[in-house]
């Protein structure tokens, strides 16, 4: 379970953006950063600062992965043929917690990680409790029968805050989601602009 669960909106305020597009984000009320000197932090970022910010924003979006986890995913994206930035997004979206979040089975990516860790999810009929588990095209992810009436699930399914992307086929009556294909950047419904190309530049230089 992520350390950030109780303080997830600090990420929004640190970035100065409502990165999940949630109505409760403090950025909707005040656009400056957290802390005593947050209001004085506006300034032009260097190239390094811009790249670092892009990396922190993308990493934070997926439940604020540790640097070690994120760098490992990046290294894999680099090894695969094709555009490294697109590969990175595809690998992140194949995480089981990301699929649970995208399918609207839970309201936040943080809740998705906890939901998976607590054993509420199956993949192709087998219980999986590892949030970083990587789904493959054609895999069927489902909420276990005993978990379908949980308040957190009912809240998420009934929310109009997000739409399900078309690389998933979701049946909210059966609480199943089929991972149809690995998305590219343009397919992913980020609430703010993500710049994986800058993440690639960051790691190329550091």
UniProtKB/TrEMBL annotation:
It holds the Pfam family S4. It comes from Paracoccus mangrovi. Belongs to the universal ribosomal protein uS4 family. Part of the 30S ribosomal subunit. Contacts protein S5. The interaction surface between S4 and S5 is involved in control of translational fidelity. One of its GO terms (cellular component) is ribosome. The keyword Kinase does not apply. This is Small ribosomal subunit protein uS4. Residues 23-47 are annotated as: Disordered. InterPro entries: Ribosomal_uS4 (IPR022801), Ribosomal_uS4_bac-type (IPR005709), Ribosomal_uS4_CS (IPR018079), Ribosomal_uS4_N (IPR001912), S4_RNA-bd (IPR002942), S4_RNA-bd_sf (IPR036986).
């Amino acid at each position: 379970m992520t350390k950030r669960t109780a303080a997830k909106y600090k990420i929004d305020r640190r970035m100065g953006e409502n990165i999940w597009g949630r109505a409760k984000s403090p950025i909707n009320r005040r656009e400056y950063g957290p802390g005593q000197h947050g209001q004085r932090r506006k300034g032009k970022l260097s190239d390094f600062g811009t790249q670092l910010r892009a990396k922190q924003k993308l990493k934070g979006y997926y439940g604020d992965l540790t640097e070690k986890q994120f760098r490992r995913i990046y290294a894999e994206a680099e090894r695969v043929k094709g555009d490294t930035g697109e590969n990175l997004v595809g690998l992140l979206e194949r995480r089981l917690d990301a699929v649970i979040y995208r399918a609207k089975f839970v309201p936040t990516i943080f809740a998705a990680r906890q939901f998976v860790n607590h054993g509420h999810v199956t993949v192709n009929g087998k219980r999986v409790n590892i949030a970083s588990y990587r789904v493959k095209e054609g895999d069927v992810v489902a909420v276990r029968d005993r978990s379908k009436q949980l308040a957190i699930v009912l809240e998420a399914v009934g929310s109009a805050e997000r739409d399900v992307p078309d690389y998933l086929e979701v049946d909210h009556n059966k609480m199943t989601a089929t991972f149809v294909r690995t998305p590219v950047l343009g397919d992913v419904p980020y609430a703010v602009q993500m710049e994986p190309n800058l993440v690639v530049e960051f790691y190329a230089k550091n």
